[in-house]
User: What shape does this take?
Amino acid sequence: MALKIIVCAKQVPDTNEIKIDPVTKTLVREGVPSILNHDDANALEEALKIKDQYPDTHITIVTMGPPQAKDMLIECLAMGADAGVLASDRALGGSDTWATSNALAAAIEKIGEYDIIFAGRQAIDGDTAQVGPQIAEKLDLPQVTYVEEFKLADDQKTITVKRQLEDGYELIELQTPCMLTAIKELNTPRYMSVGGIFDAVKVEIPTWGAADLGVDTDKEVGLEASPTNVYRSFTPAPKGKGEMLSGDSEKEVVDKLLVGLKSKHVI
Amino acid sequence: MAVNVINEKCKGCQLCVKACPFDAIDMVGKLAVINSKCTSCKVCVSKCPFDAIEVDEKEVEEVDLSAYKGVWVYAEQRQGKLQGVALELIGEGRRLAREISAETKVYAVLVGDDVKGLAQECFEYGADGVYVIENPLLKNFTTDGYTKVLKEAIDEYKPEIVLFGATHIGRDLAPRVAARLSTGLTADCTKLDVRVSSYIDYANKNTTLDTSTLDPNSDDTGLKQTRPAFGGNLMATIICPRTRPQMSTVRPGVMSKRDRHEGATGETIVVTPNLGDADIRTKVLEVVKSSKEIVSLTDADIIVSGGRGLGDASGFELIKEFADKVGGVVGSSRAAVDNGWIDHSHQVGQTGTTVKPTIYFACGISGAIQHLAGMSSSDIIVAINKDPDAPIFEVADYGIVGDLYKVIPTIISEWDGAEALFHATEEKQDD
Assistant: This one.
């Protein structure tokens, strides 16, 4: 019995590279690379490790995004995934997490059978950690988030995971099918292989629009259907610049600092 | 609420293209065209010098939301102990409730097995009432069990707002509950407002937002949920206009507890959940408290953080020595965690812990926006960095350009003499 795994991934801007233009106070996007979201790479890696053990495992990557998100799918294929699906349609634009999970759940249902769905815990551009659990809800699956250790029993149905907590962990057992969200402690993602890249470009990646997904563009996906809307957006006001301390020696500088802290009654 | 370009007014200046955080505006010939990446964030509207971009604030379909009343706080407990964030949110929930109206109440919601004893603590921190949902099957947190009982209680009692701590449990539970209710959820909020007037006050004090289009006398009492996006590079205020309840998660340490009122009491509502074994599809085999040192960054008065500038993992030995000297807790930047120099539990920032200590020492931290997002509300920030152009100096109250391996040992050796030094300086000034 071959296992079927679906991995949910997102192409994101590398938010570490984003800066704010000091004059216009707007984001500088130019030259910011688009990458496979970090936690999603861990999600894919865990699926690939299962495939290492059971080579007949079939891994499908699913993503929602603009047409260029296909590049990320090719990267995932080059790492070792078998198939990729892109959900892309102008009607999906502006979806919040609720609407996004409707689109992705519909895509997963269209893919068909699955034993395990892996997703990253959260994407670095939104940091919400909501889409994984909300897909699980739409598909009526049990979920475990913040997975830091994963074990599949020999029956290929029973899963034991360690779920990270702030002050420890929970050891949880569950059965397939299920949704698991990965964090970076789970594993170290592999690199693309040369052979993988060669094969990846030959894989046909279907693009599914709202009609293919069978989702209602008034009620289920897109800006209008999303329960949350943006009221206003802005860049944070920079805090006023403080005092730069200088002196002829470290001692002189540090003494100025300590006097400053004392005068503000914080030490 | 779509954003549209008025073709007749667009001059093709491309200012909006540059301003858009989402790469959602293309130039087609000399005309700006909004593409499918648009999230209606409205950043472009104010950037257009020709008023050529308008927001189509479509009349919100009249939905009767008036049946929903009161503010709920999910009072997260683990092994029978209330989490600090629950108490913080009871304080915040009470503030929001009173902002809605003098009669609006805040309720804490306790879910677990034999947890009613925690109600008293909830009252003392400001809850007007407490819902108690108990069942032996709720002894340990499970997504399935807790989602079911909370969703059913919300259906029955209809709160207008539900707040959760953005803990590893809250961030697992809240999205699931929101999806089952088909309502909106906003993650990791750093500011909540009900009245437009208080939102204007907040925006004017803390942001670059032009508030002239907002009406301070508006009777809108929808929840305005402000959160960082893009790793803290952009702030967005999110609303949930057509569905109830309005749900948010809030990071621990962001809101403040109310002073405790010993002996305070309130109404207790016991909810009997409808729950069976078959409803819970995960089995918690074990809950393990980590033996590793528990880092309580959120409660720390002083935090000493190290970053990439330390050079290697051994730099944290000096940071630890520094922290011990000043009675502080060790923090770190994401770069140091990613390099494997220190455990992620020490990480401060957008993807780590949000902190607001009295003093934050940033040592060898350049100040990536995602780090600043987690520490810029510290009372006093002291930055030590070799690079005089490091962005951390933009937010620092005191900046020292220099080698941290020389500066920190000097602080350690001088620290105890600070008092004497201060008096000596004062006397000099008196002379």
Notes: The longest strand of chain A covers residues 143-152. The two ends of chain A are 66 Å apart (CA to CA).
